[in-house]
Amino acid sequence: MKLSFIRRLNWMLTGVVSVLMLVSLAVQTNHVNTLFRPLIEPELARKAEVVGSYVVAQIDRAVALGFELDKLVGVDELLSDALAANPDVKYLALEIGGRLHAFSGTEEARAGNRLTVADPLPEGESPQFLDTVLALEGNEAARLHIGVDSGYVRSAMNEVVFDLGSVLIVAILLNVEILLLVVGTSVAAPLRRVTAVMKQAADGHLGVRVALRNRDEVGELSRAVDWALDSVQHKADMTASEPAMTKIGMMQRVVELRFAIFIFSLAEELTRTFLSVYIKQLFEPVPGLSMEMVIGAPIALFMLLWAVSQPIAGSVSERRGRRAVFLGGALLSFVGLVGSGLATDLIQLIVARCLTAVGYASVFIAAQGFVIDATDPKQRAQAIAMYAGGILSAGVCGPAIGGVIAGQVGFRTTFLISAGLALLAAFMAWQVLPRVRAAQAKSGRGLRLADAVLCLRNPRFVGLAVFSAVPAKLGLTALLFFLLPLALDDQGVSQSWIGRVLLLYWLLMIVVSPMAAKLSDRSGQRIGFLVAGGLVAAGAAWVLSMPGSLGTALAGVALLGVAHAMLGAPQLAMLADVCVKERAALGETTVIGMFRLIERLGSVIAPFLAGLFLAHYGYAGALKGIGAVLAACVAVQLLLSTLFRPRPPAADLPQRTPA
User: Fold this and answer.
1) 590 vs 283, more confident
2) Which of 78-92, 118-132, 431-445, 473-487 has the highest mean pLDDT?
3) Residue 62: is it exposed, middle or buried by C-beta count within 10 angstroms (0-12/13-18/19+)?
4) Distance in angstroms (rounded) separating the CA atoms of residues 85 and 52
5) So what's the pLDDT on residue 588?
6) How distant, in Å, are the alpha carbons of 40, 155, 248, 251, 428 from that of 198?
7) pLDDT at 652 > cutoff 50
8) Residue-level pLDDT at 654
């Protein structure tokens, strides 16, 4: 069986479902506009009447006490106070005899001493304000005008449409995950099982059987293969049957595990949009530390424990089994997420986030180890890519849907929902992962200090790991997870919009990464891609620092997504080129492990560095400061790669012609 058939089937089904979802979105959008627009405008008018009635009552009371209306003082202050308490109202105006006596609000609503709402509009234009008029008691010439922005209805409808669009994107990606699970478990994995059994039989291991109970065409095929093997009268090699069947059975579970990883990753990604804002709400002064540094502490500790716990969890999973470590990590994450939602101070939140970090490290390393156990070396890259695809899809879905949930039910409830997802992933893994540890040809060893010394002696490795990989993680954590949510929240941007902004990063990562990888392989200019990606990331930080709220935020996040997509594949490809001796001495796995460990240091220092810049220079200065650090790292990396460029072999050097 060719895997391209399964891919085509997945794409075809995804395309059909996506088109149906788009049609559904268009119908729902039209229905929302038709159904709710006529209901919103009367509600706005009623709100304007409530606000105006309060002001009219105050003025009528003063007149009833014997004060003359046109000689009242403090009316402007009364209107300003009422306007400040009702930000949806754009202006309040007291009109006496056709002229404004008092006014508070946007200057666009008036021209001198008269309101412009009664002026005739050019043909085709709609009024800018919905003007509600209330008469004062006992004075027909005196009226109070309450103006509401007519664009509020349009913006409210747009907000609904954007929410529906975000849900559509999440639904399409969730549909892809479900299709991969359904098609993989019902078609792809059974056919791979049949193929593996036939290959084992061809090698003389006739004791293997497909042993599928499916009541479909694939099940009939498997029973026919088993019948054919039963009918063979040759001597069977039964000694290799049990290990071979164990391997075949484990391969079938990789697809099922991807969905569990997707659900588990989604649990953490739901909190991305508001985590730094939530930490800020729990802030308590710490002597000697600024508020920004304290806010960065839980994020930095999370990243640090995640990095440190992975090699430890990997070693434990080798001894205790992948299943035990996965379930233990998922339960730790469940406890940590519940504790995060129930935390009443920063200390409790830090403890909860530390538990969550250890849990996440355990889950990911156990899942990765199981994928390696369950696949042959020839299929391992594709299996790991499929496993990583679930994490990337969760990165797209989580911020968008998490922002919507947080905006509707609050931060604490969203944490509890995340905890429920972590528990669901644990249940799925309990069903999928085998109860016993699979036999392995050899056990990997953990990282040692001597390994780090050997790698760090290589200037090209230092340039790649310290001045390319570390800045990439630093930029991701400092810009996307720390500074940007805080800055947008400070500007009054809703959690839903913050989620949409972060969604753009992951979408571009999914779209641009394959193209960047192909171009990098074709051109062979790895260092060029790394330099260009680093400079684009630095430029993204500077774009984010510009005023403009959502527009510049979207542009900056888009640039950051493109930059990191340009960096991902070339970094790993270049690692093999610059560490030839190290790979020969330590093994490829150890070199990659060292590279990943150093890379994660960027996530650890990012919150502290961003908090330091934020405390001294504000949001714009902090974003520019991170951009300057990223640009400086690009310069150092380019310098190291130029100074320590490998020499060409002697056979390639130009030869002098004898005199």
Assistant:
1) 283
2) 473-487
3) middle
4) 12
5) 61
6) 66, 61, 11, 15, 30
7) no
8) 47
Q: Which residues are within 8 A (CB) of 557 and not within 5 positions of it... i.e. 6 or more apart? A: 480, 484, 501, 502, 504, 505, 540, 544
The segment with the largest mean pLDDT, out of 46-50, 195-199, 328-332, 528-532, is 328-332
164 within 8 A of 35, measured Cβ to Cβ: no
| pLDDT score, position 438 | 44
In whole angstroms, what separates CA 257 from the centre of its chain?
A: 20
Looking at residue 439, its pLDDT comes to 44
pLDDT exceeds 50 at position 3 = no
Helix (H) / strand (E) element for 111: namely strand 110-111
CA distance 54 to 61: 11
Work out the mean pLDDT of the chain and round it to a whole number: 77
pLDDT band at residue 650 using 50, 70 and 90 as cut-offs: very low
In one-letter notation, the amino acid at residue 625 is G
Whether pLDDT at 284 is above 90: no
Rounded Cα distance, 615 and 224, in Å: 71
- Concatenate the DSSP letters of all residues of 289-340 into one string: B-HHHHHHHHHHHHHHHHHHHHHHHHHHHHHH-HHHHHHHHHHHHHHHHHHH
Going by C-beta distance under 8 Å and a sequence separation of 6 or more, which residues neighbour residue 401?
166, 167, 170, 270, 499
Q: Which residues have CB under 8 Å from 558's CB, separation 6+?
A: 504, 505, 508
Single-letter code of the amino acid located at 510? I
Identify the weakest region by mean pLDDT among 85-89, 483-487, 533-537: 85-89
**Which contacts of 530-533 are long-range, i.e. CB under 8 A and separated by 24 or more positions?**
530/464, 530/468, 530/566, 530/567, 530/570, 530/571, 530/574, 530/637, 531/634, 531/637, 531/638, 532/566, 533/472, 533/563, 533/564, 533/565, 533/566, 533/567, 533/570
Q: Among 424, 478, 472, which Cα is nearest to 610's?
A: 478
What would the two tokens of residue 497 be? Answer: 């919009």
Averaged pLDDT, 422-445: 70
How many C-beta neighbours within 10 Å does residue 270 have?
28
pLDDT at 656 over 80: no
Q: What SS3 class is residue 137?
A: coil
Single-letter amino acid code for the residue at 13: L
Helix (H, G, I), strand (E, B) or coil at 288: coil
The two tokens of residue 571 are 């970094």
Residue 273 per-residue DSSP state: T
∠ at Cα 421 (279, 15), nearest 5°?
A: 110
CA neighbor of 326 nearest in space, from 280, 379, 298, 368: 368
| Helix 3-64 vs helix 151-183: crossing angle, to nearest 10 | 150
- φ/ψ (deg, to 5) at 357: -65, -45
Q: Looking at 112-121, 209-218, 482-491, which range is the least confident one?
A: 209-218
